[in-house]
Amino acid sequence: MSIATGTRLDTYQILARLGAGGMGEVYRAHDSKLNRDVALKILSEAFAGDANRLARFEREAKALAALNHPNIAHVYDSGTSAGTSYLVMELVDGDDLSALIARGPQPVAEAVRIAGQIVNALEAAHDAGIVHRDLKPANIRVRPDGTVKVLDFGLAKALQPFGQSGNLADSPTITLPAATVPGVILGTAAYMSPEQARGKPVDRRTDIWAFGAVFYEMLTGRRAFGGEDVTEVLGAVMRGEPDWQALPPEVPPAIRALIQGCLQKDRAQRVADISTARFIIGAASSLADVRPAAPSPARRWSPALAAGAVLVALLGGASLWLSGRAVPVAIARYTVTPGEGQEMAQAAGVNVALSPDGAWMVYVGSTPGRGTRLLRRHLDDLDAIALPGSDGATAPALSPDGRSVAFLVDGAIRTLPVEGGTPFTVVSAGGAPAWSDDGMIYYGRGNVTYRVSAQGGEPSAFTTPAPNLLQRQIDTLPGGRGLLLTLIEGTPARARIAVVGPQGGPARVILAGTQARYAATGHIVYATANGTLLAAPFDVGRLEVTGPKVAVAQGVAVESDATTHFAVSRSGSLVYATGAGFVSELVWVTRSGMATPVDPSWTGE
């Protein structure tokens, strides 16, 4: 049944229809009690008198209510109003994964990032004894900030009877549990496990099969098991094999093996627990087995603050760093020269950020008479493109999906889509931002680090104040495992790198140095006071350095406040600026204007 806009169901007012499934329709509604928009799932009249389907609806509400995880769409409420049963859920903005895949295969690093969040959701559900049973791209939504939300745990949508036409992505699901009614098929045809297609009892390995099918589809842009109708699709599921040659050659062997293990038809041979996938993705997210594409022809880049900047492809050496073996590896280095009027600005804070895949960068450019602005530059292009709405920007930090950039303007943190859009003020008084994969932005202000949602809101202190120590140069660790930050007291030589756990609290010093950045190779890259970049293997679980450090580059620009001009991409590429940086010193100045250093060693703020 369709509900007219403006209709009220208890405290919920219908605003717009969002879609429909086999069980009913979904609407955008406004909760007048809590003053927020929600997704309202309505049980259709055809099922309202069906005791089994109504029971399914109530089970879904209870199952979802038991799940509280950042990668799972929350359930807020359920009820019945004037004979209409409804479920109130979190309204998740953004594209569903099927829409993203329709635009083409996802880059390997992005697919791995999304898959990791799906695994987190499934692991939380499985630990609570809940099996999704209808995992598919249409039930996975990617928010604009990059957060992945898995929808419809408990198999909310009922499938249409077989033989009825329709898109296979929305193939019908029968509502009764296969565990109790033999021969009943649950799930969506293109993502059903063989046991599910046979109507046999299902367990968490059914979700693992569907996860493998979704992961394959993200990387290839095509379904693992296709066909023109449900019968053909189920035949492919039961007897066919995915085209493994369709996986891009840069997919790490560990990821390829994971997908193959998830899609084993014999579930006794299948990956048995989704935590295995979490472990493999965590290890392979280093992309240590990915070989970088051939570098673009050498270009020159001469920013205002330094003699040049060098992009270093680190991927080839990642596994050798981990093993500690001194084996020669191929490292591509090249310089990039900006076009006229596109020089890097002399601005406070780190003035460059790399995209997650290392293919492009955003940097702070100087414009005569206009101050600073952000410029976006693909590394194989000759020119950069200014980002409208970024005038006055400093300290850029890209979102985990690379779609948006956060920056400082007059002390306020703002965000802006890199493809163009309207700037959004996150907080009016902040610091240099760091954007985490859980949708939060962290920044240091004074001797405390704060966090705030990228969607705005009230900031909260995340760390314990450190007396006489500024907390700066924040970097987030993957999976919400904590932060890296620099404790600054005077000169760069006295700077220390510290870690903070996922729950916040006091910072623990782990190294002497400044501006640590986590690389997906499983290392932290950081700088010394003399401008040497070092890399050290780092365990994100224990928050500890686990091996010897290795020199990566020399002569990197270090400023008197310990800011070092380099950035690391999620794929392991590095860009840095060389030169002396901006060093200040304490001097005596006479009334005639003569300046005399107090002590040549006193440099800093």
Principal-axes shape call: globular
Mean pLDDT across all amino acids: 79
* Biggest β-sheet strands, sense, barrel: 6 strands, antiparallel
State Rg: 26 Å
| Number of extended strands | 36
Low-pLDDT runs of 5+ residues are: 156-187, 286-330
- Distance separating the two termini: 67 Å
The order of strands across the largest sheet is: 1-2-3-4-6-5
Task: Bin the helical content.
Answer: 10-25%
Total helix count?
Answer: 10
Beta-strand residue fraction? 25-35%
Helix and strand content put the structural class at alpha+beta
Description of the molecule:
With 605 residues, this protein is of the alpha+beta class. Helices cover 17% and strands 29% of the residues. The protein contains ten helices and 36 strands. It has a six-stranded antiparallel beta sheet with strand order 1-2-3-4-6-5. Strands 28, 29, 30, 31 and 32 form a five-stranded antiparallel beta sheet that branches. A four-stranded antiparallel beta sheet has the order 11-10-34-33, with no helix packed on it. Strand 20 and strand 21 form a beta hairpin. Helix 4 packs antiparallel against helix 6. 50% of the residues are buried.
